[in-house]
Amino acid sequence: MFATGLLLFWSQALKAYNSVFFRAKVCLLLLAGVNAVVYHLTVYRRMNEWENKLVPPPQARLAGWLSLIIWAGVIAAGRTMAYTLN
Q: How many Å from the N-terminal Cα to the C-terminal Cα in the chain?
């Protein structure tokens, strides 16, 4: 997906850059990266304390929900971008 996205941006860079959906997608991708880094630097380090429990800690569940919401936004922005780059 990265290769095809890069090729699409390369072929229509000006149109993509001016698209609000492209900018939203890039911001959401950066936010997904920040979410993953924060999760791995904080919650994941204590995984051995909670890996055998039935319910993960609230911080882990929050990170999971944020990840799902952010990636759904990335997908929606990418699909909408396809209709605006005419």
A: 20
What count of residues does the chain have?
86
- The H or E element that residue 12 is part of is none
Residue boundaries of the structural domains of the chain: 2-84
The 10 Å Cβ neighbour count of residue 49 is: 9
- At 84 the pLDDT is 79
Can you tell me which residue has the tokens 């319910």?
55
| Cα(52)–Cα(35) distance, integer angstroms | 23
The pLDDT assigned to 86 comes to 65
Ordered mean pLDDT values, 10 residues apiece, the chain (86 residues): 79 84 93 96 89 88 97 93 76
**Do the Cβ atoms of 35 and 63 come closer than 8 Å?**
yes
34's tokens: 């920040």
Cβ(20)–Cβ(6) below 8 Å = no
pTM check: above 0.90: no
